[in-house]
Specification:
2 domains; elongated; Tetracycline Repressor, domain 2; mainly alpha; about 200 residues; Arc Repressor Mutant, subunit A; single chain; about 0% strand
C-alpha cells in the first residue's frame, strides 16, 4: 500500500504541482480513505520524505560514482558536477520533486522552528559531500577537511541553483538565453578550471 500511495503522490506532483499534494488527493487517486493514507504516512513531511529519499540516494550514488571513476582530483570534481547535471537535467520533474516539493507547506513548529520535511542533511547527501571534500583536499586546493566540506556544499548548491533556473524555465516554457549545456560547462569551468 505504501508504494501505491507514493506512486499516486508522485503522479500528483508531476501532473498538478507540489502544492496540489494533499492526503485527500492521494486517497482519491488510489480509491482509499484519507485515514488509510495517514496510516502509512502520518504527516505530509513523511509523505514527501518517502518521495524524495530514493532520489536523494540516487543523486548521491551518481555523484560518488563520478568521483571514484576518475583518478585526478580536479578531473573528479569536474566529473562530479557533470554527472549530477546530467542526472538532474534528464528528469527535471524528479529534480523538482527533490528540491522544490519539500519546501511546499513548511510551517513553524511549536517553538517557532521550521518543521523540516527531510530533517537535516540526508545521510546519503552527507556521504556525497564527504567524498567530494576528500577529492578537494587531494587536489591541494584545501588543507583542512572542514574548509573542503564547506566548498563541497557550495559546489552542490551552485549546481542546484543553476538547475532550479533550468527547471523554472522548463515549467514556464521559457527558453533560457544560453543553452543548458553551455551554462553547465561554464559552471564547471568556474568550479574546477582545466589546467592551462
Amino acid at each position: 500500500m505504501a508504494d501505491r500511495i507514493l506512486d499516486a503522490a508522485r503522479r500528483i506532483v508531476r501532473e498538478n504541482g507540489p502544492d496540489k499534494l494533499t492526503f485527500d488527493a492521494v486517497a482519491g487517486r488510489i480509491g482509499v480513505s484519507k485515514q488509510a493514507v495517514i496510516y502509512w504516512f502520518p504527516n505530509k513531511a513523511r509523505l514527501v520524505e518517502g518521495l524524495a529519499r530514493p532520489a536523494l540516494e540516487s543523486e548521491a550514488a551518481t555523484g560518488m560514482g563520478a568521483l571514484s571513476a576518475v583518478a585526478d582530483p580536479d578531473a573528479a570534481v569536474r566529473a562530479f558536477v557533470q554527472a549530477l547535471a546530467v542526472f538532474h537535467t534528464a528528469d527535471l520533474d524528479r529534480f523538482r520533486l527533490m528540491y522544490v516539493t519539500p519546501q511546499i507547506g513548511q510551517r513553524p513548529g511549536r517553538e517557532g522552528e521550521m518543521i523540516s520535511t527531510l530533517g537535516r542533511i540526508h545521510p546519503a547527501t552527507n556521504e556525497m559531500y564527504d567524498a567530494l571534500a576528500g577529492r578537494l583536499v587531494a587536489s591541494g586546493r584545501y588543507l583542512r577537511l572542514n574548509d573542503a566540506r564547506r566548498a563541497a556544499v557550495a559546489i552542490h548548491t551552485a549546481l542546484l541553483g543553476l538547475l532550479l533556473r533550468m527547471a523554472m524555465a522548463d515549467t514556464l516554457k521559457a527558453q533560457l538565453r544560453h543553452r543548458e549545456d553551455a551554462l553547465i560547462d561554464a559552471l564547471i569551468d568556474v568550479i574546477a578550471p582545466k589546467a592551462a
